[in-house]
Amino acid sequence: MKLYKIFGKHKTWGTVETGFRSKRFASYEEYIAHQSAKLSTIKTLDKKWERLKAGLRERLADVPEVRRGANGLCLGARLGGEVEAFIEFGVFAIGIDLNPGTANRYVVTGDFHSIQYADASIDVIYSNSLDHVYDLEKVVAEVKRLLKPEGVFIAELNHGTKDEKGRDPGYFASASWDYVEQVVEKISALGLTVRRKSEMTVPFGGLHVVFGKA
Predict the structure, then answer these.
(1) Torsion angle of C-alpha atoms 197, 202, 204, 209, degrees rounded to 10
(2) DSSP assigned state of 111
(3) Cβ neighbours of residue 113 under 8 Å, at least 6 residues apart?
(4) What is the pTM for the complete model shown?
(5) CATH 3.40.50.720 fits 17-213, yes or no
(6) How far apart are CA 67 and CA 185, in angstroms?
(7) pLDDT interval class at 53 (50, 70, 90)
């Protein structure tokens, strides 16, 4: 109920380009406030959170770049379940989020549209939160800036609204698409190359895509 008092009913969606939609916000500050409010709905021991970690661990086992001694950055990491999964593979990992809460061991405050770390400094960047972006081009530009020459970006993307077993965007989503392959094509067009791609079902249905620098 509190969220409805702050933001009203679900925001309207506008078409940015064919197949893609962006939630309409009055300002970037309103977008930040909207995304930051999600933390209050997350439970640390929620079963979905545990399923996220278990499913991700299984997929990371097939990514050779995820190795002991590598460093990793998780974007939009909330409480840090994905960070824990990377650490279990021996990766020196940290997450960023607009609102990581207090006393978060795994995630620090950060905005994936403008990341606070050095150019060409990261081996592996991961995100399952691209449906929460304000500007996909800015996020991909930041990923390209941060990755080492042989680094990889792992994007886990939910099925689009017109995909088989697709889903409508949730309340906190700020980006939506008709087909998940459109997002893969968009990221590729922005300068990253698909290295590997596979279907995933946990914690949501979609694609697990490993991109390298072009």
Answers:
(1) -20
(2) B
(3) 133, 134, 135, 138, 139, 142
(4) 0.91
(5) no
(6) 27
(7) confident
